[in-house]
Structure formats: C-alpha cells, structure tokens
Hints:
This protein is α/β, with parallel strands linked by helices. Helix content is 31%, strand content 17%. It has helices at residues 81-90, 117-130, 143-154, 181-191, 193-202, 219-223, 245-254, 269-272, 275-289; strands at residues 11-14, 25-31, 37-43, 67-71, 95-99, 136-141, 165-169, 231-236, 258-263. It has a nine-stranded mixed beta sheet with strand order 1-2-3-5-4-6-7-8-9, with helices on both faces. Helix 1 packs across helix 9 (275-289), helix 2 packs across helix 3 (143-154) and helix 4 (181-191) packs across helix 5 (193-202). The longest helix is centred in the C-terminal third of the chain and has 15 residues, at 275-289. It starts with 10 loop residues before the first strand and ends with a helix. Mean pLDDT is 88; it is low at 4-13, 15-23 and 48-62.
Amino acid sequence: MTLSPAGRVARSTPRPHSGTAGPARRRTLLRTSDGVPIDAVYESGAAAHESDGIARTGPTGPSARPAFVVAHGFTGDADRPHVRRVAGVLASYGAVVTFSFRGHGASGGRSTVGDREVRDLAAAVAWARELGHRRVATVGFSMGGSVVLRQAALYDRDSGLRPDAVVSVSAPARWYYRGTAPMRRLHWLVTRPGGRLVSRYGLRTRVHHRGWDPVPLSPVGAAARIAPTPLLVVHGEQDAYFPVDHPRMLAAAAGDHGELWLEPAMGHAEHAATDALLRRIGDWAAARAGRSG
C-alpha cells in the first residue's frame, strides 16, 4: 500500500451526535487519504486529578493532556457497548477519539481486514492533533491491534501522524493464521462469498471481495520499525484466537522499546479487558505519551 501526502490531512464534516451531546463531545465524518468517510467521536475526558499538575484549556484549544485513539476489532464500531466501555475508562486519563473502521458501523467503504485501515487510523490521529493534543496514544484491539502497529511503522514523525505511544491488545503477529477454530471461522467470513454475506447482514460488517495485493507489512514486521516510539503489547493467556507465541514475537521484534503484559485470566480483545486492566493501560500510555508539553 502506498501512502500519499494527502494522508496528512483529515478533512471532517460536522454532523449531529445521536443522543445527548454536550460541549465536551462531538461527532464528525473524517475523510481518509483515499476518500473514505470515517465516523468518529471525540470526548474531551474527565477533569484531571488536582494532584497531576496538568494545565489544560477547552476541548478545542491546546492541551497538555494526552488523547487516546481507540481502534476496535473486526465487527466492532464506535457505538458498540464494549468500545464505549473502553472509551469511558480511558477518559479518566485524557481525551478519547473512537471511530468506526471502513466497512463498519456508519463509516463508508468496505473492510480490508487490516490493510487500508491504517488510513482510517491516520485520519483519527490527525483529528486529535487538530483538536490541540500534542501527545497522542493509539490503543488497538485484535484487528485494531495490528492496525496500530502498522500505522505507527508506516508514518514518520515529521508527518505528525505517528503516535507518541502505541498499545496493541490481542493482536496477531503474522498473517493468515488458521491454527484455532475462531480464526478458521474468521477466514471463512472474509474469503468466501457466503461468509461475506453473513458478515454484512449478520455482523453489520461489509468486507471487500478482493484479497490483498500486495500483502501488507505484517504486524511483527511493523513492530520492528516502531522504535523509538514506546510499544506495549497486551495479550490474554486464555485467548482463543491467537496463542501466546504471537505477543512474544511482537515484543521480541520491538526490542528495548517494547513491553509485554501476559494476562493469565484474560481472553480476547475488548470484551475480555477488565476495567482494571484498562486503567493500567491508561496509566502506561499517559506516562509514555507524555503528561506535559
């Protein structure tokens, strides 16, 4: 995939938020560098603790608080309860941007299952920067976990689109893994016409009918290219999709700039991440992304 200079700018079209929207919350359609509209939500976050010493202004002004950009897993979207729960916990540590990947929710386009989704994430990171956040951390789950790795590797610091910290939860290390029953079912969903119909009408996820050409940079290849950006790899030892050799490969590829948390009782992705784990992730990301300018 070639990343064009147009990827440096996220164009947004404001639209009403469904439900009650206060001044600290806004919803918009971002435009990716390849023209796909992406449904995105910004929340300025809860007031910081008095002891943290952070100076801040309103949600649209320059802010020393970090912004968390949350990248959901396959079949998720910005309005799913498990995504909203993640956003709610992280809002205690900074602003939060959630969005729906292409082919998901109210976003346009069709899912490429981790390839062109880096453009969606780049648009969301650009929006956080435009809103005044000098420090941005990306937090991705499952498919989103692979996307945050690849996005950080593919965009350089000068673009303003590389995050300041990356958290990858329940991500694969390599493509085409079929070693577990859930992954064999997922491959059927995305590679077979009948599976794509089930995905579209049963799971509300529109999958592109074309396969990858060329095959995108693998997550483990991306992890090796993220330094010096700090990387946290989180994985459950009870993950039914990807066994623990996947996170170990990612952490090894990241070297000294990577950190690995293996969670003994955890399963897969957002549903399995407890509030306590999300708070630990929030602490880690806020510290690594920077609490001050």
